[in-house]
Design goal:
Blueprint lengths: L13 H9 L7 E4 L9 H28 L6 H30 L3 E3 H34 L1 H7 L2 H29 L7 E2 L6 H6 L6 H34 L4 H29 L8 H24 L2 H10 L15
Parallel strand pairs: 1-3
Antiparallel strand pairs: 1-2
């Protein structure tokens, strides 16, 4: 039986959903994303910088996905999950950067009501999905290092499909509930200007005419459910991994064992570190601070992940050397070698 990459992205008719939920509650049918308006004289520089970041991010993650599909040596669970993560980063960056780049280039930050909520929904759901995927990848490394005799039987192709699919379904399903609550509770009757470069949750709440305390509480509950347990499980996995590695008698054995999970540990640190800087630090009176801090988790993890895995992983570097000039000539095969 062969595994194929399975991803769950719900298809929502946002215009219909918004119309059903809001009715005539709101007088605003579009928003204006102010973006980096305070740095108007640097718009060209910002556009070129963000364009380079986006292109490098897309190329790096696309190469990882292609290598997982094409290279026979990468058809194992660890790289199947890595391919899933890279595909997620492609979706995540493509949800934010194109519209931001368009606004910088044209000076027009207008976004429709439904598209704004769809952008927030995709962004939040993909972050939740990434938390789950990183936890799954940590569990995979835990089994490989701490339970090597049971690894092949436990982490089989069916298990990989279930874990990956569950990560995507759970990430999108829970924020569907929060999305419906937002559309039912929020009204917009004052300013339609959002001081952000994308439809951030708290930026939307800040311009609403409604009482938002219930939605704020709900958002913290959802965030706690989908960030804290995966983070703690990831942390627990690495506690066991480190304890197991330290018991290996030879220095060479310890180095080899730790090298198999060091890249993932760096990726986890960058992701959760940037997320905490963006949303867990005390809020300031300056409205621009959250906008700039959120750029860390918007841009840094998707940009850094391909380089971390390619620079610190011998198998990925070898696959890149062997296949970089031949990717378009090969037909894709199964993501697993059974």
């Amino acid at each position: 039986m062969y595994c194929t990459m399975v991803y769950f992205i719900p298809l929502l008719d946002m215009d219909l959903l918004v119309a059903m939920m809001l009715g005539n509650q709101t007088k605003i049918d579009e928003f204006i994303l102010l973006g980096f308006h305070e740095f108007y004289e640097f718009q060209t520089f910002l556009f070129l910088s963000f364009l380079v970041i986006y292109i490098v991010t897309m190329i790096g993650n696309f190469l990882i996905v292609m290598l997982v599909i094409f290279d026979e040596h990468l058809k194992v669970p660890m790289y199947f999950f890595l391919g899933s993560l890279s595909f997620l980063e492609i979706c995540y960056s493509s949800n934010i950067f194109p519209r931001m780049l368009s606004a910088l280039l044209t000076g027009n930050g207008t976004i429709s009501f439904s598209n704004c909520f769809m952008q927030w929904y995709l962004c939040s759901s993909l972050v939740a999905t990434e938390c789950c995927l990183l936890c799954v990848m940590s569990y995979d490394r835990y089994l490989a290092i701490c339970k090597p005799l049971h690894y092949l039987t436990t982490m089989n192709s069916q298990t990989c499909i279930h874990l990956t699919t569950s990560s995507w379904i759970n990430g999108f399903a829970v924020f569907s509930i929060l999305l419906i609550l937002m559309l039912q509770q929020l009204t917009f009757c004052r300013s339609n200007e959002i001081n952000h470069y994308f439809c951030d949750y708290f930026a939307l709440l800040s311009i609403s005419c409604s009482t938002t305390w219930l939605l704020e509480i709900m958002s913290y509950i959802v965030a706690a459910i989908f960030t804290l347990p995966p983070f703690l499980l990831t942390l627990l996995s690495y506690v066991y991994i480190i304890a197991t590695v330290l018991k290996i008698p030879s220095a060479t054995g310890r180095q080899k064992a730790f090298s198999t999970c060091s890249s993932h540990l760096v990726v986890v640190s960058i992701f959760y570190g940037s997320l905490m800087i963006a949303y867990m630090l005390p809020r300031t009176e300056k409205a621009d601070v959250p906008k700039f801090s959120s750029f860390l988790y918007i841009a840094l993890p998707p940009l850094a992940n391909p380089f971390i895995y390619s620079l610190r992983n011998k198998e990925v570097k070898e696959a890149l050397r062997n296949n970089i000039g031949r990717l378009i000539l090969y037909k894709p095969t199964s993501p697993f070698r059974i």
